[in-house]
């Protein structure tokens, strides 16, 4: 006995085969008429939406790469600008310091000159004061000496005669 003869499910029955084929064809016709087009359309739409999403993702990726490149360029430019500004600030700082030093030196020189002038003026004033005091003392001493000498009438007469002789000689 064969295996096919024992199992009725496996043995081919022509009636079952015809009805199964007929049912399959009806089902295929109904599906192709009503369900196949919407399913294919949904699959096509799904395929298009996936392709669109992929193309948008590629565009977004390209845009991100472009933005990253632009951002790096901006950062490089900003660093260069920062370095330039810092260099200028250092130059300005050095210039201000040099100007302040020169101005302080000039003002110091002016103050020294003014102090020298003041010292010279004070020196001349002191010398003039000393001369005045010396002349006052000299006059006082001369006055006292003359008074001593002029106490005597004969000495006065001799002094006047000597002065008259000198006046005539000049």
Low-pLDDT windows of residues = none
Query: How far is the first residue's CA from the last residue's CA?
Result: 191 Å
Series of secondary-structure elements, N-terminal to C-terminal: HHH
Structural class: mainly alpha
Total number of domains = 1
Helix-residue proportion: over 70%
Output the radius of gyration. 66 Å
What portion of the residues fall into strands of 2 or more residues? under 5%
Count of DSSP strands: 0
Mean pLDDT: 86
What is the oligomeric state here? single chain
Major β-sheet annotation:
none
Shape by Cα distribution = rod-shaped
Q: Enumerate how many helices there are, as a single number.
A: 3
Task: Explain what the structure shows.
There is one protein chain. With 170 residues, this protein is mainly alpha-helical. The protein has one domain (33-160). The protein has 3 helices and no strands. It is rod-shaped and about 195 Å long. The model has no long low-confidence stretch (mean pLDDT 86).
Topology of this protein?
Elements: H1 3-6, H2 14-150, H3 153-169
Throw out a few tags for this protein.
170 residues; mainly alpha; rod-shaped
């Amino acid at each position: 006995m064969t295996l096919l003869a024992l199992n009725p499910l496996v043995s081919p029955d022509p009636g079952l085969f015809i009805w199964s084929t007929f049912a399959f064809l009806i089902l295929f016709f109904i599906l192709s008429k009503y369900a196949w087009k919407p399913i294919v359309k949904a699959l096509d739409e799904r395929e298009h939406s996936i392709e669109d999403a992929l193309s948008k993702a590629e565009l977004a990726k390209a845009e991100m790469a472009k933005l990253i490149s632009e951002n790096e360029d901006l950062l490089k430019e900003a660093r260069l600008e920062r370095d330039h500004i810092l260099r200028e600030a250092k130059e300005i700082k050095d210039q201000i310091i040099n100007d302040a030093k020169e101005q302080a030196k000039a003002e110091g020189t002016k103050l020294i000159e003014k102090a020298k002038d003041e010292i010279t003026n004070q020196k001349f004033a002191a010398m003039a004061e000393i001369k005045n005091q010396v002349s006052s003392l000299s006059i006082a001493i001369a006055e006292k000496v003359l008074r001593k000498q002029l106490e005597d009438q004969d000495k006065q007469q001799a002094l006047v005669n000597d002065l008259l002789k000198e006046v005539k000689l000049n």
